Each structure stands twice: as C-alpha cells, then as structure tokens.
Amino acid sequence: MLPLITGAVEDRSARGIAAAVSRLITAGRLPAGERLPTVRAVAGSLGVSPTTVSEAWRNLTLAGAIQTRGRSGTYVSGPAMPRFSRLGRPPVALACDLSTGVPDPALLPDLSDALRRIGDGRWAGSYLDEPVLPELEAVLRERWPFRPERLTVVDGAMDALDRVASAVVRYGDRVLVENPAFPPLLDLLQSLGATVIGVPLDESGMDPSILRDLVVSRPPVALFLQPRAQNPTGVSMTPARAAALARILREAPGLLVVEDDHAGDIAAAPPVSLGRHLPGRTVHVAGFSKSHGPDLRLAALGGPAAIVDQVIDRRHLGPGWSSRLLQGVLLDLLTDEKVAAQVAVARTTYAARRTALLAALRIRGVPAGAADGINLWMPVADQQNAMVALAAHGIAAAPGAPFCVTPLGSDHLRLTAGLVADGYDDLAGALAAAAFPANRGSGARGRGHPHGWR
C-alpha cells in the first residue's frame, strides 16, 4: 500500500499528494474500505513533513474521498452518491410532480415559426467558421449586464459551469458557493476535488460579513453564485448587495466570480451582475432553458478573454462549437417581438403562481420562500416524513438536503411552484399538513426563517 501511494506521487506538495491519492481511488487501485498508511509513514517515505501529508489527508476528507475513524485509522470512502441522483423522479408516477425544477411547457414559446425561418440552410457553414454566429453575438452583447471581453456559446448552463470550473479549479482549491446551492454544481466541484465552502443567503443575496471572513482568512480561487431567482430559494441579488460583495472581493484579486443567470428572461428581478464592478474577474453565464426551451441546449458565456478563450480552445478537442442551426433558432427567438411578448406573459404567470401559492401557505402559517423564478423553498419538521406524507396525496417534492453544503437550521423541500396553475388551497393544505404534522389541528406554524438563512 505505501509503495503504491508514494510511487504515484510526482508533486510532493499537499495538493500533489492529495491529487495522486485521488487518482488511485478513481482508478480503483485504492478500493473503498482500504486502510491508508499513517501520516508519519507516508511523510517518511516521501521525505516531507507530517504537516504536509496531514493537509493532503484533510483535503481528501473534505472532498469525501477518505474518512477518519478515530484510533482505527483512515480509510478510503465508498463512492459517494451524486447529489443530483438524490433528486431523482419518484419511483412511481404521482399526479402532481413538483420535484422537477423545470419550466411549464405551456409557457414556452412555440418554435415552429423560428424553425421554419432558419431551416433553409442559411446557417450551414464551415468547420473553420467562428463558434458563435456574428448576428447572435451582437444581440447577446446588447443584453449582457456588463461589457465582456470575450463571449461564446456552449451547450447549456451546466456545460458552461463545467468548462469554466475545469479551467480554474484544481484539486484542493477552496471554492465558495451559496448555501443552499444547485446540487449538480456541488457534484461538479466535488468531482474536481475542490474544497467547497457555503456562504449563507439573506433576502438580498450572499451574506457580506461571512463572505468577508472567508475571503480574508484564506482567499479561495472562485466564487459561484446565481444572481437572480436562485435555485432553490428564489432569492435575487440586489444591486446594492452586488456592490457590497464587489468591495469585499477586491481584497482577493486572484478570485474569479462565476455567475449562473439560469432563470434569464423569466426572472422578475432586473439583470444584476458583479461584472459591473469587477468586469475583468467575472464570468457570466446566460441561460435560455427556462425562458425559451430546455431542448435548445444553449447558454452564452462571457467574461475575461483569459478564461473564455480556454473554454473555446478546449472545445476544439470535443464538439468544436454549439449547433449553429440552434443558434439561429435562438437568434430568431430573441429578435421576434411576438416571442418577447410570450416570454413576458410567462414571467408574469410564474409570478402570479408563486404569489398565489405563498399566500395560501401563509394563511396556514407555513413560512415558505419563493421570491423569484419557478421554485419554492419550504421548511419542514422532517424531510423524509414530509415527502412520504405528500406522496400519499399524490404530490412529489425534491428533498432539501442535496442542496445544502452544510446543514441549515431545519429540513426543507423544494417544490416547482411554476407548474402549479390552480388548486392552491388544496395544495397548500397538503403541504402544511406534511410540513408540520404536529400542528395540523391549529394551523402549521413553521420554525425559523423560510430560507434557513441563519
């Protein structure tokens, strides 16, 4: 065991040792349950200090790759179940599936006219053409919340986050995210071996005081956030909060801000971005799945050339570019006044649905939050019991635990309020009874803030 580990280490820094052990675990050469050599044994064999190996072991523990069992020693962890898989659809079809986090298909624009107009081959080009249609890039730049040095189009928001994270995050790097956060992002960062640290939210966005402490104590390499309609809480960052966060982040000049504006045009809040204050250190991702259609599989990515060019260059070794045919569809949709009106109707409809469901819950004393977007974040006394109780009513919800970097003050469920077009009173009654069954007789009275912010 010891020769296997020491033989795999090329870089004898804490990060290099952790990366080497991680590769052995991923390759199956260090199987789950295997006991690792002691810190002193590894340090002696490599000729480094025990402190260096201890830091490597700490990074591996935070990444979930190994676990310490007190005096019994340190062992390789079993493969962790991805957070995203814990959000899977219910095992049986339920009449009201609010676990999905997807837009209402009835509120998406009809693509027929756009497909008819761009299906004449006008966008058929060469492999050597620019990755983004010039006409689309011009429209995107007009919509951008700050002036990006470089802009490209990729295959959806998660593709953008994956490519940016892969370009800037190395094993053991500290990365800040919102708490709660989007589970696939947490899975992505864990797969890269990042040490992920959650920053709590309030009604205006990330908590500045906690962010300042984290930035000053040991500067992270990146901060990932959702500026509008945060998934799962629905929080939208205010311009004043963006300015406050930017002042703090200036104290960490090497930190990159990555913004996932996934809700796009269905967000009720106006566009806001840290890029207005830190344009040379902000990568902004504009998604179109919620507003114009998930099957477009397109998102725009803009920011400093040093980062965006890495993404463009790396794609040459894979897909090369995102379909120019679909880019043409998106261009048509973004410049069609009829489609703009349809998206505006969707935005207003989602807002009305959130308001109606929140009002029905408020009457029953349930302090849920759904400030923007399509999701509702609801505290519950017990996550598992609440999901079982809702399933008995034919209602599916997403568990809150996979969204949490660290535990919040209470359990939560995420529900896709944007899919609820009617029956608010009946749904609210079922949600209230499931959330706090002990208070069923007197009206459910939730404990703590609806977002679990503190």
Automatic annotation (TrEMBL):
Residues 11-79 form the HTH gntR-type domain. SUPFAM superfamilies: PLP-dependent transferases, Winged helix' DNA-binding domain. This is GntR family transcriptional regulator. CDD domains: AAT_like, WHTH_GntR. In the C-terminal section; belongs to the class-I pyridoxal-phosphate-dependent aminotransferase family. Keywords: DNA-binding, Pyridoxal phosphate, Transcription, Transcription regulation. The keyword Transcription applies.
